[in-house]
Structures are given as C-alpha cells and as structure tokens.
Amino acid sequence: NAETAMYRGKDAGRATFQFYAHDMNARALDHLKLEAGLRRALERNEFILHYQPQLDLASGGIIGLEALVRWQPSRQPLRYPGDFINLAEETGLIAPIGEWVLNEACRQRKTWHDAGMPSSCRVAVNLSARQFRQQDIVEVVSAALRSTGCAPAWLELEITESAIMDDPESAAAIMRQLSDMGVHLSIDDFGTGYSSLSYLKRFPIHCLKIDRSFVRDIASDNDDAEIARAVIALAHSLKVKVIAEGVETEAQRDFLREHGCDQIQGYFLSRPLPVEALERFLHTHAEGGTD
Ligand code: C2E
Ligand code: MG
Ligand code: MG
Ligand code: MG
C-alpha cells in the first residue's frame, strides 16, 4: 500500500515517518511494527520449528513430522504463524522466512537420519501460495536439499488447495518438477477450495490432507462425515494417501480408521513439539508407549 511504500522509500527518514504517521490508522502502524519485527527476527535468528507427528493407522508407525514455524522474540511469549504468516505473505518476507524453514527442516531431518531415523518418516514443510509462485522455488528446494545432505525422499511439501487452484496450469508444471526431484507433495486444507476432478488427476500428488474443519464434528455431524468419506474415496480412486488433520479425540480416530483413512495428525496423538520433546515422544512411541 502507498503508506508502506513511502515508508520503505530510500530516504524515508524519521521525520517523513512521523509526518505520515499522523494519518495512519492503528492497524497500519501495527503492520509496520510487525514487519520490522519480522525483519529483526530473521537477522537475529528468532524463528524456530516445532514438529507434529503423523501416524499411519495400519502400521501404527510415525510416517511424517510436519514442521510448523514459531517466532520466539527475546523475553516475549512465543508467537504462532496465525499472527504473522499473512503479513509475511503481503510484504514478501515469506520468501526469506520460507527459505529458512526449508533449510532448517532439511538440516534437522539429516541430523535425525544420522541418528537412525528410518527413511519412511518424512519431514513435511508448508509452502504458502506466494512461495509456491516464487520463480525460483524449485531451485530453492533443491539448494536446501543439496546444502544439508537431506535426501529428496525424506521431504514432503504441503501446498494448499487454494494456492494450487489460483493457477492450476503453472501449479501442475512446478509440482511436476518438484516431484521429478523425488520430493513428495501433499494438498493441505483439502475440501476448502474448489478443485475440479479433472485437474486433480493431473497433479503429481502423494497425499490429500482432509481439512480440520471437516474433522471436528466428524463423529456427530452427518454432512462432515459424508465429506470425509467422499475425500477418502476420492484420494483412493486417485491412488494417493489421505491424512486427516486436527484429530483430537478417540471417537474421531475410530471413525477415520473405520472409514479407511490412512493417516492421522492432531492433538489426540501429539501437539506440535520442540525438537527435544518430539524426540522423547518418538522414543516412547517406538517402545509401544501409546496405543
Ligand atoms: P496447517 O498447515 O494446516 O497446519 C495445521 C495447524 O493446525 C497447525 O497450526 C497445528 O498446530 C494445528 N493443529 C494440529 N493439530 C491440531 C488439533 O488437533 N486441533 C487443533 N485445533 N489444531 C491443530 P499452526 O502451527 O498455528 O499453523 C497454522 C498454519 O500456519 C498452518 O496450517 C500453515 O498453513 C501455516 N504455517 C505454519 N508453519 C508454516 C511455515 O513454515 N511456512 C508457511 N508458509 N506456512 C506455515
Ligand atoms: Mg500443513
Ligand atoms: Mg493443514
Ligand atoms: Mg488446515
């Protein structure tokens, strides 16, 4: 927007800022503060990743770990992506933040490999719409793999249904290149967009993620139950896996298992965890610590 553009102008000194600040509403000021905060966070390395395990219902094994970004400003409470990802998208800061996330997730995955983590467990990284449209996204992904020694097969990229449907033709082309590299692709928040069946068939995807909003009342609401059943059937007819996100209760898990859903992710199994806590979880789980 115009105010931000002026503030960012080459000689936007303090005087200029104060002059325009008078006209700015509180919201715009909040945005500027947050944007400055995000730039500082990048410089000071204040982002961290939490990982949420994904469970295979048939084998009982952990087959994935979704990396979720958090911001830890010094001496302030932890901040969640709901607070800052949208602004990062609007300002373009999502490019460097997203690159940091990719590199960190790949580095961590390689470390886990060296510690004996099986290849079947992928680390899943979210790509926002703008990142996905970034011209050099394929190069950014391959550079992250190369520089960290992470194998492409250990990485999964989550792209939202709406990001893909913005421009399905070019999305299919980018996904083809990423898939050819050996990276797995999943469609996040599935069911909230407007995918057409004819398009879906043409995307080289490995997994559909049923959006949390359909999972919440799955065991009590007939419409949500129908939608979940339809997504599971659709995924299987496309010969891809299906995972349900936001699974919080045993009843939801049981419903999904009975209806052939392949995998689940959610608080019922575990919240997203910092590395050390996640490693303890994996250890306990491997010993048969959860059902
Ligand atoms: P998402 O990719 O759909 O991730 C799932 C979100 O649901 C996460 O929120 C997770 O903590 C939360 N969640 C998981 N299980 C449950 C559950 O059982 N119940 C409930 N109520 N929530 C659950 P989080 O970490 O706040 O992330 C929100 C969104 O921010 C993500 O949605 C994703 O779209 C975006 N995001 C997170 N990390 C990144 C990132 O590194 N890059 C990009 N571009 N986007 C990210
Ligand atoms: Mg996701
Ligand atoms: Mg999701
Ligand atoms: Mg979601």
UniProtKB/TrEMBL annotation:
Highest taxon in the source lineage: Bacteria
EAL domain residues: 31-286
Name of the molecule in the record: EAL domain-containing protein
Protein source organism: Noviherbaspirillum galbum
Parent-record interval covered: 419 to 709 of 709
